[in-house]
Amino acid sequence: TDTCEEWNRVYFPLWAAIKLQEGDTLCLLDPRLKGKADEEELSRVCRIAGWCIQDLECSRPSMGEVVQQLEGVLDVSIPPIPALLQKLVDDELAGDTYYYTTI
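The chain above was modelled as a monomer; its predicted structure follows.
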């Protein structure tokens, strides 16, 4: 979909955090996989990644917790958008746009 193709025009970590909050993790899947992935596993690893990039160290899971989360032993809730990325979201809502460029 068009919303899945926005990533090449927007700062990817910001876009990924927003898609995670919206529950639209299939958009984060490498397009070369052509949608061939377990949606629950994809959602789980994206939520884990979101917790691993939290601003405060105490908010991040330990490696042992990450392993248990990956194995499905521990549940993983949707993480909050990290403060730095939230600032970018707020700026974007105010009209600023962050573009992704390649060299």
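The chain has one domain: 2-93.
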